[in-house]
Amino acid sequence: MTRGRFITFEGGEGTGKSTQARRLADALRADGREVVLTREPGGSPGAEAVRDLVVNGDKDRWSPVAETLLMYAARADHLDRIIRPALARGAWVVCDRFSDSTRAYQGLAGGAAPELIEAIDAAVVGPDRPDLTLIFDLPPETGLERAAARGGEARFEAKGADYHRKLANAFRTLAGRGEGRVLIDASGAPDEVAARVDAALRQALPLEAGA
Ligand SMILES: Nc1ncnc2c1ncn2[C@@H]1O[C@H](COP(=O)(O)OP(=O)(O)OP(=O)(O)O)[C@@H](O)[C@H]1O
Ligand SMILES: [Mg+2]
């Protein structure tokens, strides 16, 4: 059995990750693949319980280091129970946020030491890094407007304009590191963004994407 592929969607608030992750999962299923569409923080029962602790409540509820450890506790459970078994049976895993969100939110924008995050990531994720990471880029004001119009969990949205500018820059910095990362212009209509996602997928995984 060939191992499946692991694709993650990353970027700031309201950039369209969840919308496009769903669309990609639908398109891959239409090609006849088994797809596991999942999200972080969360994705397994234990990790969803941790999600409640990190996405709700006062914006300063956790220090960046405490928040990093909660995110990786959730990620360890999600990997063990959902992601690794899916990849092992040949399914494609499409995940809405993953380690780059911790690197950006808690690390580069939040102040947790990047070396700490990399050490924990190496221990928790190890070789099971994403094959492709799509990093959604949009002016933070636009993303926050979209997210506010949608409503829902708003702990990170409440962190202020300066934090969200740092966050957008952090994701651009991460995109520049390569290792399977592609910066996606998240402006324009959903169909336009979906076409950019499709092009990135065909470029990164040409055989599997059938290009
Ligand atoms: N290209 C687009 N143009 C305009 N609105 C969009 C676009 N894509 C998504 N939206 C809308 O913007 C809102 C946020 O989109 P979505 O939930 O997909 O973003 P997200 O990146 O997952 O946000 P979050 O970081 O809060 O999870 C939703 O109401 C969605 O319908
Ligand atoms: Mg979302």
Q: How would you characterize the overall build of this protein?
A:
The chain is of the alpha/beta class. It has one domain: P-loop containing nucleotide triphosphate hydrolases (Rossmann fold), CATH 3.40.50. Helices cover 55% and strands 13% of the residues. The protein is globular, with a radius of gyration of 16 Å. It binds adenosine-5'-triphosphate and magnesium ion.
Keywords:
binds magnesium ion, 5 strands, 55% helix, 5-stranded parallel sheet, 9 helices, 211 residues, alpha/beta, single chain, binds adenosine-5'-triphosphate, Rossmann fold, globular
Q: What can be said about this structure in brief?
A:
By secondary structure, the protein is an alpha/beta fold. Helices cover about 55% and strands about 15% of the residues.
User: How would a crystallographer describe the biggest sheet?
Assistant: 5 strands, parallel
The percent range for strand residues is: 5-15%
CATH architecture name: 3-Layer(aba) Sandwich
Instruction: State the end-to-end distance.
Output: 22 Å
What structural class results from the helix and strand content? alpha/beta
- Helix count equals 9
CATH superfamily: P-loop containing nucleotide triphosphate hydrolases
Uncertain segments are: none
Helix content: 40-55%
- Measured on Cα atoms, how large is the radius of gyration? 16 Å
Number of domains: 1
Q: Hetero groups bound?
A: adenosine-5'-triphosphate, magnesium ion
Describe the strand arrangement of the main beta sheet, using strand numbers: 2-3-1-4-5
The residue-averaged pLDDT reads 95
Order of helices and strands: EHEHHEHHEHHEHH
Name of the level-1 CATH class: Alpha Beta
Shape: globular
What is the CATH topology assignment? Rossmann fold
Total strands: 5
